[in-house]
Amino acid sequence: MSVEPLEIYLEEREVARGLRHDVRVGLTAHPKWLPPKWFYDARGSELFEEITRLPEYYPTRAERAVLAARADEIAATSGAKTLIELGSGSSEKTRLLLDAFARRGDLGTFVPLDVSVSALRQSTAEIAADYPALRVRGIVGDFTRQLDRLPTGGRRLVVFLGGTIGNLAPDERAGFLAAMRAALEPGDWLLIGTDLVKDPAVLVPAYDDEAGVTAEFNRNVLRVINRELGADFDPEAFRHVAIWDAEREWIEMRLRATRPMRVRVLDLVVDFAEGEELRTEISAKFRRAGIEAELGAAGFVTRHLWTDDDGLFAVTLAQA
Ligand code: AVJ
C-alpha cells in the first residue's frame, strides 16, 4: 500500500482567518448568513454521515445507485490514470469507482481533497489499505480555491459528488466550473453529482428529518463558532428551519431565534430579534437542461447524464 503524507494547502491559520472573515461579513449582513462549509468539524462531519443514513435523506442512496450501475462505464469511458475527488469526506461512494478502475487495472493515483484533516487521515489510510496498487495522495484544501494545484500526470477524472455544487450560489457555481475547466486539459473528465428538482413533499423532509439530526447539524455551526472564536451563542435557542424556494429552486436552511438574543463574537455585538433568521445553507436542485447549460457555459461537453430509477438524482460525465 502506498499512502503519502497529507499535502496541506490550507494552513490552520488561514482557515481561522477565513472563519473570522465569514463571521464578520455574514453576521453583520441583512439578513444574516453563514457559509455552509463551517458545519464540518469532526462532530459536524459525523452528523452529516448520520444524515446520509436517514430514511428521508434520499440523495446519498440515489447517487450510490447511479454510481453502482455506471462505475464500469465511467472507468472505461474516461480511461483515467488519476482520479481526483473534491470534498471527498469519507470517500464511501467513490469506492464504487475505485473498484471499477481496479477491475481494469489502469488507475495509478487517487487524490482525495477535503478541508477536514480528520476525515482525510482516516479515508486515505483505509483506501490505501484496501487498494494496494493505488498511490493515495490526500490534499487538505478548499475545493473552491485549490483548483490550480491539482496533480497532473495522465488522463484525469475529477469527481465532485453528493450534490455539493448545490451549496454554491449560481454566480459562484459559474466561477467554480470555469476555474475547474481552466485547471483541466482538453480531454480530461469531470463527474458531477447534482440533486434534481422534485416534489417539495420529498425535498423538504430530506432537510428536516423526523429524528432531528439535520437540526443538530445546522446548530453545529454555532458550536463551531463558540469554540473557535469564543462566541456565546446559545444553540438551543435557535430553531432549525428548512424551506423550499420554488423560484430559485433551492432548499434553504436557516436558524431562527426563538427569543431576542445578544451574541458576542470577535469584537462584534450581534443582536437577534425574536423570530429573526440566520441563513446557513442553500442546496440548489437542478434540471437536466440546466446542468448541461451550466457545464456548457464553462466549456465542458456533457457526454452522459444518468439518473437513478426514480429520477431523484443525476450524475453527469462531462469532458473538458
Ligand atoms: C453535503 C452539501 C450535499 O446539501 O444535501 C445535508 C449537506 N445539508 N443536509 C446537501 C446537507 C443538510 C448536503 N451536501
Topology:
Layout: E1 2-3, E2 7-8, H1 12-27, H2 42-51, H3 59-78, E3 82-86, H4 94-104, E4 109-114, H5 117-130, E5 135-136, E6 139-140, E7 156-160, H6 170-183, E8 189-195, H7 200-206, H8 213-229, E9 238-245, E10 250-257, E11 261-265, E12 268-272, E13 277-284, H9 288-297, E14 301-307, E15 313-319
Helix pairs in contact: 2-8, 3-4
Bound molecules: N,N,N-trimethyl-histidine (AVJ).
Characterization of the model:
The chain has 320 residues and is an alpha/beta fold. The chain is 37% helix and 25% strand. The protein has helices at residues 12-27, 42-51, 59-78, 94-104, 117-130, 170-183, 200-206, 213-229, 288-297; strands spanning 2-3, 7-8, 82-86, 109-114, 135-136, 139-140, 156-160, 189-195, 238-245, 250-257, 261-265, 268-272, 277-284, 301-307, 313-319. Strands 1, 2, 3, 4, 5, 6, 7, 8, 14 and 15 form a 10-stranded mixed β-sheet that branches. Strands 9-10-13 form a 3-stranded antiparallel β-sheet, with helices on one face. A two-stranded antiparallel ribbon has the order 11-12. β7 (156-160), α6 and β8 form a beta-alpha-beta unit. α2 runs antiparallel to α8 and α3 packs parallel to α4. The relative contact order is 0.18. The mean pLDDT is 94. Residues 51, 59, 162-164, 166-167, 207, 214, 281, 283 line the site of N,N,N-trimethyl-histidine.
